[in-house]
Amino acid sequence: MGTKRIVIVGGGAGGLALASKLGRKLGLKSKADILLIDRSPIHIWKPKLHEVAVGAIDQSIEGLLYRDHGLKNGYRYQRGSLEALDPDAKTIQLSALYNERQELLMGPRTIEYDYLVLALGGVSNSFNTPGAESHCIFLDNLQNAEQFHRQLLDGLMLLDETQSRLSIGIVGAGATGVELAAELHHVVESVREFGYQNISKQHLDIHLIEAAPKILPQLPDRVSGRAQAVLDKIGIHLHLGVQVKEVTKEGFTTQDGNLIRADIRVWAAGVKGPNVFSDLSKLPITPRNQVEVDACMRVKGHTDIYALGDCAQLILADGKPVPPRAQAASQMAETLYHNILNRLAGQAEAPFEYRDYGSLVSLSRFSAVGNLMGNLRRGDFFIEGHVARFMYLSLYHRHLSSLFGWFSALVYRLAQKLLRWQRPKLKLH
Ligand SMILES: Cc1cc2nc3c(=O)[nH]c(=O)nc-3n(C[C@H](O)[C@H](O)[C@H](O)COP(=O)(O)OP(=O)(O)OC[C@H]3O[C@@H](n4cnc5c(N)ncnc54)[C@H](O)[C@@H]3O)c2cc1C
After folding, report:
1. What pLDDT does 376 receive?
2. 116 Cα to the center of ligand 1, angstroms
3. For 392, phi and psi rounded to 5 degrees?
4. The predicted structure's pLDDT at residue 384
5. Could you give the C-alpha distances from 12 to 39, 178, 206, 220, 300, in angstroms and in order?
6. Which of 46, 79, 395, 403 for mutating ligand 1's site (highest number of atoms within 8 Å of CB)?
7. Which of 70, 83, 166, 347 lies 20 to 30 A from 135 at CA?
8. Domains (ranges, CATH) in the chain?
9. pLDDT below 50 — which residues of the chain?
């Protein structure tokens, strides 16, 4: 039996952690061929995308190059976008690659696998709201974050020149919307230090629109109540229990006929599986475009294909699906890592057990809030301020540890901090 080819599509919170661990364990010793495919050459941990969008972090410093990382961690990297899958032939097809001028770089490619892992993440769900796709930015990937960043810089430049007002509307007050609103407020508060002398926070209107009656609807009342108090204090306009009926270039028309004006419009509501899944007719795809997997993360009916993270629907023993969160993707990667090693050794695979450690929301420099769960005490308990900030950052550190190992992750963080200390705190170009 030759070397097994393990192909992982999607190098995000789950896929990259899995590729790194398998690469170090098997790839570096040539015990298996680990191939990671991602449509982007750079990895940014998705929970940091809103920080890229506002310029609080610079992807050229925080971004990780798959090719370089793969070389050191025992996996191969290929840039490409999944467009088709043939489970009978055990092949996937990657779409043709074009450069910025839409010139063909590479035609479609076919890749063979022995085991395939789908880790493509999810995208925001516009629920077919008219105008949402054409008039909103979706914070789903690095390109989206950069697009938002460019619009924000144009808006700030205009504000500085004309002292008019800039209005930003965000649909969805889940973690993404709330964190983005707080971060935006902080950025506008700080830009005077960077030469935008005529801008003050009074020039900015941030609207956060949520269909549920509270912000952070998935989180306990105490966490959302405290986060709401912080947003109220810094002057974010909250529109709760409000449904968006249509989006135009003027702003958001609500179900009751009001127009919430917004120069920059962001859609950060709902999560569904990647659009390409609707073309994978041989796989069991749910109405929310996720692929159904069994307890061991095998795609139902296909023992050689696995899926993890936001693109997978795994129903737990209590009947609830695993939530689309970074901690879930990372735990799934850990279980799948052991299962793949077991499978290669001819041993049984273990079912995935989700451990909810709680949720943390960063409110930029203003605060951080969350609830922790687990062994520390029965049930969950509320945390805030420095403790919550520390726990929030430790989530990122855990992700880095799976990519580099614990010690190298620490060195990497320190190096990043030093680089950031030397450079401007905001990326305004
Ligand atoms: C702004 C923001 C803030 C968030 N904050 C938090 C938080 O604080 N805590 C938390 O737990 N969760 C948070 N989340 C959710 C969390 O980021 C996701 O649940 C998590 O990243 C899912 O991991 P994943 O591995 O499934 O997919 P992702 O991390 O999304 O990675 C998917 C990868 O697949 C690649 N890909 C996609 N389509 C293709 C294709 N066709 N071909 C090839 N490659 C493809 C993408 O480029 C990407 O690298 C946040 C999300 C956002 C957007």
Report:
1. 47
2. 19
3. -60, -45
4. 82
5. 11, 22, 29, 27, 23
6. 46
7. 83
8. 4-122+273-344 (3.50.50.60), 132-267 (3.50.50.60), 358-422 (no CATH)
9. 376
